[in-house]
Design goal:
The structure holds 2 protein chains of 2 kinds. Chain A contains 12 helices and 12 strands. By secondary structure, chain A is α+β, with helices and mostly antiparallel strands. Chain A has 3 domains: about 5-55 and about 270-405, no CATH class; about 65-100 and about 230-260, no CATH class; about 100-225, no CATH class. By secondary structure, chain B is α/β, with parallel strands linked by helices. Classes of the chains: A alpha+beta, B alpha/beta.
Chain lengths: ~400, ~230
């Protein structure tokens, strides 16, 4: 296999049969190149899917108050349920085992001004834990912290687009903007991958909002994040117990489904992940398809090459080449060509993908990539099948009597 | 050198089988130059192919240099061909992408000789057939006579016991035919056993013995006065 003489013989054959070499090499290189690029694009598609749907925390329950639909414990039906600060405390204390963190949310909309600029924005009054559930990414400054909540400070964290609109090129940190009738100090700017709507939000401490609204203790909704290690099943148990607990506390009939609404992100995430895995299967399908096409391509070329060489192989046999040496020669040549061109095709594909980056974002392809193992395995597969495809006709050619091969004009 | 007795060979053609060789007995001594003559279909090429181990006989005994050639596997046949036999074909059968030198060196490669010795021997034999200056030319750049001389050099390079030539002048004009036959005679005079298949009487008479085949049997076997090929310049 590693005899220097045989390699010399093979290199000579390769050098002197450029068309054949280029033809089979090109097929292999193209096959692996297309595989890498398509597979990479598939992964890019998955990336953008992830970015659209999977960026929020998955271990989150959104709890909303509703209106009762059944009378219970002396209360009439159609009563509006409200959450207040004590609910936060109670949930935290009663579900210590499950709860990682908890935050209220109070949504308001107000006209916001800075210098000459003004626009309407939504604001969310929250606790620091909100950063865990919505995952805003802090670009500058900081998020709302415990001090803000405890001291009811007039600090706000604004979205990237708010900063762009109101502050233009100015650094918003430390500046004061006017929201409603009060002035707030900007302490942070965030971005959010969920989209523009999120980046037009203004966050402030919920205690501050309550203070501004006659020092009440009402909250719009509650977001509970549970320990991620609990898993999906336990999350469902937690959701059920939490619902029962709140219904009891708020005097809602346990059979009444309208008093409390809980949205479990884990549930949604699971559906999205299923969709993602379907996408993965499609990507794999495309990959395998191209690979098979590539293998068929090489097989054709190999059959052609051996056919073309039948007479030469017959001459070699008449001069004393054993069948084994004929097969070995054809195989070694084909493996060498497929290996070299396969690696070239692989490199070219990877190079193209890594230069692509976000250029195809408008086609929902972000950061296309192929992991090295997949690329490597695909190349090896192509080489192996190229060898098998070469072996079968080579064996046949080696088995033909030299006299038959020589007659073949 | 060659001992054949009761050699039979038939080819299957669909349902019918064609009996080509019907019991050939033949002895060839070392240093002979034998012409095998016969019209087409007489079985002369089949006989040569069996002698050359390119084909197998159905029946009969074949001894080459006291080695019984029987039940050959492809691998041993290849080794015997490489050690014992040199071939010259009507259509030259040079490998078209290899130059003259590389073509001559090829059987030496299959003998497992080192690259330097191969080159050296190949040059030596090319020189013998007068084509040393053409060593780096491809077959497509050579005339028919030159191609056949390269083929003869290739057949001689492995130093075979027997040289088998199948219509060596079949594709050549009479002038180059004479040159090639002159070369064959010269090699024979140096002691090499040579068998030439031909259907041309004048070529046959340049050998020392003529065996005539007809319908698969030897009908005539006679020693002849050798006509020396005149090499015109």
């Amino acid at each position: 296999m590693f005899s220097r003489d045989r390699w010399q013989e093979i290199f000579e054959t390769i050098r002197k049969n450029k068309l054949r070499t280029v033809l089979s090499g090109f097929t292999v290189a193209l096959g692996i190149f297309i595989f890498i690029v398509l597979f990479g694009f598939g992964n890019g598609l998955k990336n953008s899917f992830k970015q659209f749907f999977l960026d929020d925390a998955t271990n989150t329950l959104f709890v909303y108050p509703g209106r009762t639909s059944k009378p219970y414990r002396g209360f009439k039906a159609n009563r509006r349920i409200e959450f207040e600060n004590s609910d936060l405390k109670d949930i935290k204390e009663n579900f210590k085992f499950f709860v990682e963190d908890i935050t209220p949310r109070i949504n308001r909309s107000a006209r916001v001004r800075y210098k000459g600029e003004s626009d309407n924005y939504s604001s969310r009054a929250v606790a620091p834990a909100h950063q865990i559930s919505e995952k805003p990414i802090i670009m500058k400054g900081r998020f709302i912290n415990e001090d803000d909540v405890a001291n009811k400070t007039k600090n706000v964290v604004i979205g990237r687009l708010v900063a762009n609109d109101l502050f233009k090129n100015e650094d918003p940190i430390g500046k004061y903007l006017e929201m409603g009738t009060s002035a707030f100090k900007v302490v942070g700017v965030f971005q959010d991958q969920s989209g523009d709507r999120e980046e037009r939000l203004i966050y402030l401490p919920y205690t501050t909002r309550q203070l501004l609204e006659k020092n009440n203790d009402k909250v719009n909704s509650i977001i509970v994040s549970f320990r991620p290690e609990l898993g999906y099943a336990t999350a469902l148990v937690f959701e059920k117990q939490l619902r029962l607990f709140l219904k009891n506390k708020k005097d809602i009939d346990p059979r009444d489904n309208n008093g409390i609404r809980i949205r479990n992100v884990a549930d949604q995430i699971r559906q999205n992940q299923q969709f993602a895995s379907v996408l993965q299967i499609i990507v794999a399908f495309v990959g395998i398809g191209t690979l098979i096409a590539g293998i068929i391509g090489i097989s054709n070329i190999m059959v052609f090459v051996v056919k073309e060489r039948t007479k030469e192989l017959g001459i070699r046999k008449a001069l004393g080449a054993t069948p084994k040496s004929v097969i070995a020669m054809v195989l070694q040549e084909s493996i060498f060509i497929t290996a070299v061109s396969g690696i070239i095709g692989m490199m070219a594909g990877i190079a193209l993908l890594s230069n692509m980056g976000d250029r195809l974002e408008q086609f929902f392809i972000i950061d296309p990539y192929v992991d090295n193992l997949t690329a490597f395995i695909a190349t090896i597969l192509l080489i192996i099948f190229g060898a098998i495809a070469g072996y079968i006709p080579a064996k046949r050619a080696a088995g033909i009597k030299p006299i038959v091969a020589l007659r073949d004009e | 050198m060659i001992h054949i007795s009761n050699l039979h060979k038939s080819y299957k053609m669909g349902d019918t089988s064609l009996h080509v060789l019907k019991g050939i007995d033949l002895q060839v001594q070392e240093g002979e130059l034998v012409a095998i003559m016969g019209s087409s279909g007489s079985g002369k090429s089949t006989l040569l192919n069996i002698l050359g181990m390119l084909d197998l006989a159905d029946e009969g005994e074949y001894r080459l240099d006291d080695v019984l050639i029987k039940d050959l596997t492809e691998t041993t046949a290849a080794n015997y061909r490489n050690q014992f036999l040199g071939f010259v074909f009507q259509s030259f059968n040079l490998i078209n992408y290899k130059n003259a030198l590389e073509n001559v060196a090829l059987p030496l490669y299959y003998q497992g000789l080192g690259r330097k010795i191969r080159q050296q021997k190949a040059i030596e034999y090319l020189d013998k057939v007068g084509l040393k200056e053409w060593a780096t030319h491809l077959p497509s750049e050579l005339s028919g006579g030159q191609k056949q001389r390269v083929a003869i050099a290739r057949a001689l390079a492995s130093e075979p016991k027997v040289l088998l030539a199948d219509e060596p002048t079949g594709a050549l004009d009479s002038k180059t035919s004479n040159e090639v036959m002159g070369l064959i005679q010269q090699i024979n005079n140096e002691g090499k056993t040579i068998l030439v298949v031909t259907h041309e009487l004048d070529i046959a008479h340049m050998c020392k013995r003529i065996i005539t085949l007809k319908d698969g049997v030897i009908v005539e076997d006679q020693k002849v006065e050798q006509v020396i090929a005149e090499v015109h310049v």
